[in-house]
Specification:
By secondary structure, the chain is mostly helical. 52% of the residues lie in helices and 9% in strands. It contains 14 helices and seven strands. The strands form three sheets. It has a three-stranded antiparallel β-sheet. Strands 1-2 form a two-stranded parallel sheet. A two-stranded antiparallel ribbon has the order 3-4. Strand 6 and strand 7 form a beta hairpin. Helix 4 packs across helix 5. The longest helix is centred in the last third of the chain and has 26 residues. It is globular and about 75 Å long. 29% of the residues are buried. The C terminus is likely disordered.
Length: 306
């Protein structure tokens, strides 16, 4: 018998902030895996996948022989598409995308790389493309936020917001290997959860077992900062997008006074009660979101324009 379980953690992630429902789902899953353990003699192979890591005591207290391969070098490319696999197996789709953009194959590959590549689950590791987004882009022959549109990162945005942390520290952080595989990480810091769910990835290694994290690609950067803007700035997407484009345009034309006036007007419209606990940090985070959104808007213009 072979057992494959995808998104084993989905019932728990969906109820992180509903304690009674979370406990109910946890008890159900625990009972399920206890029953699996009793079928050991009949199980030839079992594989469980999910986006976040829960401890054995949380879900798997009935299983004592799990092998976590999340950060193993041998399996670094098991859950994605490598550059070589993309070039070898998807030439027809890449050519179709190039035709839709009125460009050549190499430029189409560059667009796919900018938007969907950049995942690393250990170091060193080949660049891994998001398979869902790549396949969607090739099928629809356009670049869009396919994976991010299917995700529901509300709990992550809430964790980041409630952390009271200076936002840039999340997106250029040095951590040790052990913290990346931390169980039940949502109970303490969002960093491990951001890594486990694909919003951060390994960018470099300072020393053995010490990794530098960063945002993997444009699709994640764009979607993440749009969601952060909706919480921190309390403004709808259209208003934020228009303001960001205006500030960027003024800065590019070297109209510093105009850009500052636009920023002041934008920030003045943010409800003051959001900043009561830590005014300076709050507005620092707001400015960071605005400027990061400006970067993604500029990159997005290249990546998505016909």
């Amino acid at each position: 018998m072979v057992i494959l379980v995808d998104e084993y953690d989905a019932p728990l992630v969906a109820h992180l902030h509903e304690e009674s429902e979370y406990d109910r789902k946890r008890e159900f899953l625990n009972a399920l895996y206890v029953n699996l353990k009793e079928c050991d003699d009949y199980i030839r192979f079992a594989m469980l996948t999910g986006v976040s890591r829960f401890s054995k005591m949380t879900v798997f207290s009935g299983l004592n022989n799990l092998d976590d391969i999340s950060l193993d070098q041998e399996y670094a490319a098991i859950c994605g598409i490598t550059e070589q696999e993309l070039r070898d197996n998807f030439t027809e789709g890449i050519d179709g995308l190039a035709e839709a953009f009125g460009t050549d194959r190499e430029d189409a590959l560059a667009r796919l790389k900018q938007n969907y590549d950049g995942y690393h689950f250990t170091y060193p590791s080949a660049d891994i493309y998001n398979p869902f987004s790549v396949l969607s882009a090739l099928k629809k022959r356009t670049i869009d936020s396919y994976w991010f549109a299917t995700a529901t990162p509300t709990f992550l945005i809430r964790l980041i917001h409630e952390s009271g942390k200076f936002l840039p520290q999340f997106f250029d952080e040095t951590v040790d290997r052990r913290s990346l595989s931390a169980s039940d990480s949502f109970r303490s810091t969002p960093t491990a959860m951001l890594f486990q769910t694909g919003y951060l990835t390994i960018k470099d290694m300072e020393e053995p077992g010490v990794y530098v994290l960063g945002i993997p690609n444009l699709e994640v950067r764009k979607g993440l900062f749009e969601d952060l803007a909706s919480v921190y700035l309390d403004k709808d997407h259209t208003e934020t997008f228009n303001s960001v484009r205006r500030v960027r345009s003024l800065l590019e034309s070297r109209d510093i006074d105009g850009a500052m006036d636009c920023l002041r007007g934008f920030l003045a419209g943010i409800p003051y009660y959001f900043s009561e606990k830590a005014p300076e940090l709050y507005y620092e985070n707001n400015l960071f979101i605005v400027f990061m959104s400006g970067c993604t808007a500029r990159m997005g213009g290249f990546a998505g324009a016909h």
